[in-house]
Design brief:
This protein is an alpha+beta fold and 76 residues long. It is 43% helix and 16% strand. It starts with 9 loop residues before the first strand and ends with a helix.
Length: 76
């Protein structure tokens, strides 16, 4: 991120109950928080949303997709 010359908008989201193999929800939340800190220092227009209780699957992504598209296409 420090070397990137990004002028696009960035959207990130996560559920508080995401897991993948040995990676726990706490791991996901921690690493995403660190990434958000880094992105915030770049000045890139971004949005980061955390959905309580959501897991890592298409159903959860479908719920969040309207917010992502609205932000990315500057409809909000």
């Amino acid at each position: 991120m420090k070397q990137a010359d990004v002028t696009a908008r960035l959207y990130m989201d996560i559920g508080t109950n995401e897991t993948s193999g040995p990676i726990t929800p706490e791991d996901y939340l921690y690493t995403n928080a660190k990434l958000v800190e880094t992105v915030a220092r770049t000045g890139i227009a971004f949005r980061y949303e955390v959905e309580p209780g959501a897991v890592h699957n298409e159903i959860a992504w479908r719920r969040r997709l309207p917010n992502a598209l609205a932000f990315l296409y500057e409809l909000t």
